[in-house]
Structure prediction request, 373 residues.
Amino acid sequence: MNSELMTALRLIAKERGISIETLADAIEAALVSAYRKNYSTNAKVRASLDRETGKIEIWASKSVVETVTDPLSEISLANARKINPAFQIDDIVEEEASTKEFGRIAAQTAKQVVMQRIREAEQGAIFEEYAEKENEVLTAIVQRVEKNGVFVELGKTDGVIPMNEVIAGEDYNPGDRVKVYVLKVQKDTKGPQIIVSRTHPGLVKRLFELEIPEIQSGVVQIKSIAREAGQRTKIAVMSTDPQVDAVGACVGQRGVRVERIVSELHNEKMDIIEWDPDIAIYIAKALGPAKVVMVFINENEKAARVIVPDSQLSLAIGKEGQNARLAAKLTGWKIDIKSQSQVEADSLPGDEDVEAENDDDDLFADLAGEDEE
Prediction:
């Protein structure tokens, strides 16, 4: 019987991903609960399950007394000295208890404790596994859509996309497969709770890392991302190898690489720009596809005045200011965009606190030239 017990435990451990030690601890705790319930006692008891042979023992701690009034917690001095002649009154003796008298209720108690411990162990293992996946991308299968979110299957457990993490206008149907970004893994009374997102900029970052080999190898690095989920994302990249074009690597031949990412995000527009250590050039590129004539910067306030052709003003600002807003998020700078005619009417900024990072004509010629390309 004991060998069959250990065989069963090994099968359960393998099927549920729980260690033998955890299951053995659960059985020991169950035996203690069953003993106390069977005998209606709170006596100090310990159970032992031999991990090799499967032998089970229960030991009860008893006080040495002259006259026994509670045989479950006391032992007479005479009987104690049969175990060890050195025992004295008030000493504590550990005596092996019999499990043969356990009734049906005790057995049921033991079963309940074991199953509870198994559930707790499973939940603990799932929590640990998914806690390591925070900030990663997983493939989720849509189960159902409710008012408070989209519930998805994530493999060994379920997750939820809260409504504020759902891309506006995106439809979810049971069985749909979607990529999600793991925001948070937390413990709940019902088990691990996995909060995932479709709107977080990290989703775009991870998708690029999964899709672009040059990013995986470190040759191309993602410097910054600005996203308005479902509408448009700007991503700045740089190459550590002069022979590798960072933007070209991300776009792929005929745009096949970025197209897979765009498709996963349901046709969200994707602007890939080359990061530049020169903030004036970087800001000009961030405002693409609009052409930029000049960039004046204020280092102290981390603000930039950008001059664009009259015909490019609306493009630079974007619908409802989206292009300018994303460029500001991407670069981390405040950006004020003016058309050439506005500047001519107001006169170019001449205050001491506003300076061009490089007032070289060549710089602005380069900026204009890059945009034209």
User: Anything to note?
Assistant: The chain has 13 helices and 15 strands. The mean pLDDT is 85.
